[in-house]
Structure formats: C-alpha cells, structure tokens
Write the structure tokens for this entry.
Amino acid sequence: MCGRYELHAHPAAIALAFGLDVVPSLAPRYNIAPMQDVPVVRVNAAGARELAMVRWGLVPRWAKDASIGAKMINARGETLKEKPAFRTAYRRHRCLVPADGFYEWQLGPDGKSKRPMRIAMADGATFAFAGLAERWLAPDGEPLDTCTIVTTEANGLIRALHERMPVIVPPAGYARWLDPATEDPADLVASYAAQAMRFHPVSTRVNTVRNDDASLIEPLPVPAEAPPAEPGLALEPPSPPKKPRQSALF
C-alpha cells in the first residue's frame, strides 16, 4: 500500500523527467499524507502533459459526498477493471504521481511497535506512482479533482516490510499510462524491480503529519534484528540522501 510519501526534487528536474512544457511551482515536501493536495501529471484536452494539484483520495463521480475519498487513497491493481469506483478512471483518467520516496512501517521485534522505513530508488532518481484521477461535482456545482495510487503485490525487497507496494511506472511506460487511447495497460500494473530499490530506517517523527522537513529522510542505523529480504536483496544502509537544491521556486 502507500499511505505517505515525499517529493522534493527541483521543479525544473520534475519538468524534465515528466516532459512538462511549464516548470511547476512546487515547494519540497517530505511527509505527504492522504487528503492533502498533491501534484499529478496528466494529459490535458489539448493532448499535452500538465501538472495539476488534486486531492489524494479519489471521489468517484457517482459519490453522494466527498468524504468517501478518505477510503480511496489506494486502488488494488488486480481489480481496477472491476471495481465501480475505479474502472472508469482506469480507462480514461490515468495519471502519474511524482515521488522521490515513500514510507512503510515495519513491525518491531516486540510485535507491537512499528519502525518507519524510507523506500526509494537505489540511484536516488525521482519516479512515478501509477495514479487514477476523477472530477467530482459537489451539489453546488463546485468541481473537486482527486486521485488515488494504484498498488500491487510487493517485490522481493518490500515484502520484508509489507505484502503490497505502490505500482511504479517506468519512464518508458509514461506515455502509454497517460494515453487514454490505451484502454488497458495491464502490463504496467506490476511490481517494480527489487534490485533498483533500497530502504532504510528513518525517524519516528515521520509518524506525525505536521512534521515535514528534510531530516525525515535521513537514514538511521539498520536494526540488527531487521528481517532479511529475499536472497540477493539484503537491506543496506544507503548513501545519505542528496540535499535538495531548491534555492528558488519557479
């Protein structure tokens, strides 16, 4: 699943990575939570890619009120074509959710406590979750744009933390995922290569949504009792995250 993530790459780098014509105005964020406004990349009516701010927690068009979005932050990839809440968005309104990393909580040795882990690309690159978007109209006619993040079975690395993980779309698949003419890009709804990813422990300060600063992603020592991943995918303390070069916003 995916319930918290981060995005702090320079806006110009985001524009380059996702083929945007306009550099977005984005502040670095290290603790993005459900029901907040988040940036997504989508195709507009002119067929160009654009970055838009939408609320995380999909509200289907047929919903009676927007509160249902709190239960729709994730969509199981295996049932996208079947679930009424997601099937229309899957056919027509797919989007990409840029991220630099996400968090998962590992059960501690006492069987009760949970330790937050930061999961990211091994090379530190910005990547994209597979997302679905919808526009809901309130009774007064006011539109609300929302999104959800698609999930799938965890790969061999993430399985040490959780049985599921967000679907990560490889750059080569961006165009097909965004193209509404591609009705069923089912091959992209898959676990990302474990060898390309790493995770490390971070501060429990990430548990509190109001904490949102670069210290949240700093690696802590790897617990001696940490469960191993599948053979060849041992948890490794990564190099310290790159400091975001965000001296100015565009």
In short: The CA atoms of residues 57 and 69 lie 4 Å apart. The first strand starts at residue 5 and ends at 7. The first helix runs from residue 11 to 18.
